[in-house]
Give the backbone structure.
Amino acid sequence: MKGGRVVKRKSETSGDISGFLDRDVQLKGEISFKETLRIDGKFEGIIRSSKNLVVGESADVNAEVEVETLSVSGRLRGSAKASERIELFSTARVQSNLATKILVIQEGAVFEGNCSMSTHSGPRVVGDRAAILKNVLSS
């Protein structure tokens, strides 16, 4: 894998980074990991973990994703299920069906698809517009 490397360092999101696909890497297949994986290159296939996936700004991911938390700054296509949280940062370009407990979309992010949010206590909206959305949903 030219440009790909495995690193072990602290992640800003939480835990150690157990893998990194650099922007020069193009990979097809299935990936599983134990801590946090960051993708800055191109990936197509299946990604599964009980931890964190970070899709960097230069990433192009077309995959079936099942993780605990998903942070997207680049391009994501396919389907994504996060048992805890999905964050779409301002540079994210997402064409995917999402399923999660908590969805955060920053201003500037593009999201085309469906989102299913369910928890035992119901959907939870996080961010500046939470109060506005609560009023809209209750009327």
Summary: The first helix runs from residue 130 to 138. DSSP finds one helix and twelve strands in the chain.
